[in-house]
Description:
globular; about 25% helix; two-stranded antiparallel ribbon
Amino acid sequence: MKTQIIRPRLLAAALAAGLSLTGAACTATTAEAAGQTGAAAERTAAAASRTSAPTPVPVTVSDRLELPRPTGPAPVGRDILPLVDQSREDPWVPESGARRLMVSMYYPARAETGDPAPYMTTEEAASLLRRKAPGAAIPPEAVSGVRTYARTGAPPERGRHPLVVLSPGLGLPRASLTFLAEDLASRGYVVALVDHAYESSGTALPDGRIITCAPLCDQPKPPEGGQAAITRNRTKDLSFVLDELTGRHPAWKHARMIASRRIGVAGHSMGGDAAAATMAVDRRVRAAADLDGTFHPAVRLDRPFLLMGSEADHVPGKDDTWDESWPRMTGWKRWLTVARTNHASFTDLSVLRRVAGAPDSGGLPPRRSLEITRTYVGAFFDLHLKGEKRPLLDGPSPDAPEVAFHTP
């Protein structure tokens, strides 16, 4: 089989031709994504530590597409877990039957054995390109072959570990949060990264079929109940995942690793909205984080919550739902914004355009935005799920001048 190589100049040209993650393809949302597809970054030899802010690192262009190396000490294992909720039919395609979810399970491993875990399947990559970059001269193998660090079949680390469930933005694949899932797993967390059926650019089912968000995203108007209906359905998805992972008869073979009383949820965009909504109704969730997601509607929470967003869209006064929710959050809380970022900066898909050689728009280098995101999110869960002190969360740090703390 002939190996396909894609050069930065070709990628940049294709990206300039329209490889975007804007909400145009998902009219059910206001602005679910505004970056470009793909993932890449130079391998970093020294990543941010758990206890201090990440230090700025220059970005260089490389032919090799890869995610940033995880910062924790543990090797990372990955399983793919298909789940079916027989108690409810799919709300977007009722004729498809029971609600189906595909979940990537990341976990700290004892040894770096097994095969490298692919970023996504070639078919999922092809679907992503068809939906987000029709006509772009990018082979699917360039996306599915992005370098990751997890291994399939790796033996799990002994002991029990906190669980973090991750939910991506509407229209984005679960792979868009791989950088965060791998990093958390390397730091001692079990991570469940969820694809919500008919809400992704493309999800490969166990029978080989690919389902997309077309039944939801391509409609001329949002579903009955608007964006709040999508959030409510995701809340049911995430609580079901918790049932399947922590119940009496768990669906995952390594479920014994999970410390069922130390559970967190986080997400990007609508996934962040879903994280807040799930915490509001599911007492099993001890801490949650929203990465640049608007609430549908504003929330009322009594446990630790992290708001982290772009300076452009989420300083106080920019998003009414954050303004309204802030005084209703009565537990530990932080409101952080990151300068020179956009909506896609909190996903690993943001790195491709810069590494591909596209014009510099003056934004924060993607690898830097990912380092900041995973450092602060990791510190947040370390504090609230492991009980480890993280002074980074006490206030502004000279090592992360891009991050602002808000107390409106």
